[in-house]
Design goal:
Blueprint (H helix, E strand, L loop, with lengths): L1 H19 L1 E2 L7 E5 L6 H8 L5 E5 L26 H11 L16 E2 L1 E6 L6 H7 L4 E6 L2 H10 L16 H6 L5 H6 L3 H19 L6 E4 H6 L1 H11 L8 H5 L13 H4 L13 H13 L14 H9 L2
Parallel strand pairs: 1-4, 2-5, 2-6, 3-5, 6-7
Helix pairs in contact: 5-8, 8-13
Length: 320
């Protein structure tokens, strides 16, 4: 009941904010876009960046199931970096300039006048490069988290909105021609929920890593934020143009669960934030997962180790 009341209060606030929020920044340089797969820490990161409520928090405006303007599009829609798409361009322009309002999107705002905004999304990985081409001055943060941690979390939350089968990607003709025809066998062979989610994770990270150039986005690793928060926060705040903060509210956000936190969260249980997947996945699953990652050339970034190899990801970005 408490959860239901909480959700109703947020939705009510969202409806009020739709009519009363004034966003006066109206510049692309006033927008920070946090992008990553679901369960990768996007909400947590957005809350950390917005610890002082300075930014208007636009929560998942590109959600294909829960936001009206996206209802005709599949999960993880793909756009070629150089293609013209007037519909998406107009949506992006409205959101990044703060001219878009929607109850779910505005439900976590507590003020009515803002000059800057943080936009947070979990289904936009396949058009980050397109958005960067069209809106280069928007500050973009692409967060990655260990695929085993992401999939382990999705296993616990199967009733949430996730793509259920990577075969759904094959219906997007441009995506198939540009990237997936070489991976059709591994997509078709994904058997259970674990394997399907591993393949989905690999696809939605393989493509942006091979499209983006080093410097297009701030590449953030969830594990580094957990293990070295002060240094990562210093770099992040420099990237978005904010000065270094000594405000205690900032570091309290590291111990406070996000709005999308679930009952088994490591933050709620005060346990290690990066090794929980080892208690959830079997040795067989981990072995199969590594094999799937290797098909996409991602096993050098994430594997049996808890920590990512940042240089391996940067090598892919530099390889163009």
């Amino acid at each position: 009941m408490n959860t239901l009341i909480h959700d109703l209060l947020n939705l009510t606030r969202g409806y009020i904010n739709c009519y009363l929020t004034i966003d006066i920044g109206n510049r692309f340089t006033d927008a920070v876009w946090v992008v990553g797969d679901g369960r990768s820490g996007t909400t947590w990161l957005a809350n950390i960046l917005n610890y002082n409520k300075k930014y208007r928090y636009m929560f998942e405006p590109f959600h294909p199931r829960l936001v009206e303007i996206m209802k005709d599009y599949p999960l993880y829609y793909y756009l070629r970096p150089d293609e013209d798409n007037a519909y998406f361009y107009n949506i992006y322009r409205a959101i990044f300039r703060g001219n878009f309002r929607y109850p779910r999107v505005d439900q976590y705002n507590y003020k009515f006048i803002y000059r800057k905004r943080i936009v947070k999304d979990i289904f936009s990985n396949l058009y980050i490069k397109w958005a960067h081409t069209k809106f280069p001055s928007v500050k973009k943060i692409f967060i990655m988290r260990h695929p085993f941690a992401v999939v382990a979390s999705k296993i616990k939350l199967k009733n949430w909105i996730w793509m259920e089968d990577p075969k759904m990607f094959l219906s997007q003709e441009k995506l198939y021609k540009d990237y997936l025809k070489h991976f059709e066998d591994v997509i078709q062979c994904a058997d259970d929920f674990f394997e399907k989610q591993m393949v989905i994770w690999a696809i939605v990270h393989h493509i942006p890593l091979h499209q983006l150039d080093l410097g297009d986005v701030y590449l953030m690793f969830y594990e580094k934020l957990c293990t070295n928060p002060q240094e990562e926060i210093k770099r992040l705040f420099s990237f978005i143009g904010e000065g270094e903060s000594t405000d205690n509210r900032l570091y309290k956000k590291f111990k406070k669960p996000s709005q999308t936190c679930h009952n088994e969260s490591a933050i709620l249980k005060n346990s290690n934030l990066i090794d929980g997947w080892r208690r959830v996945l079997s040795d067989s699953q981990i072995k199969r997962g590594i094999n799937i990652l290797s098909k996409f050339g991602l096993e050098k970034i994430y594997n049996y180790s808890l920590m990512p190899d940042e240089s391996a990801a940067e090598d892919i970005l530099k390889r163009k």
